[in-house]
Design a protein that fits this description.
By secondary structure, the protein is mainly alpha-helical. It is built from 1 helix and no strands. The mean pLDDT is 92.
């Protein structure tokens, strides 16, 4: 039994659609990789900001303690 020309045409059409799906999938994967890279940069910046806040709070605590000690001992 030989395939009819309709089957060849249908297979060609199916192959074209499959190629289009593969191309679209590759675009989606590339887009997700770009998004991952951007999120990694954002996460790095947020970690740096968090570290800066920790330093500022620690410095403020130390300076306020020093100020309280100075007032206690030298304000009299």
């Amino acid at each position: 039994m030989t395939p009819t020309p309709d089957i060849h045409r249908d297979l060609g059409r199916l192959e074209g659609r499959f190629d289009a799906v593969e191309d679209r999938f590759a675009q989606i994967v590339a887009s997700l990789e770009r998004i991952d890279a951007r999120l990694a940069k954002i996460e790095t910046r947020e970690n740096e900001r968090r570290g800066a806040w920790v330093i500022l709070v620690a410095l403020g605590s130390i300076l306020s303690g020093l100020g309280a000690w100075l007032v206690e001992h030298f304000w009299k």
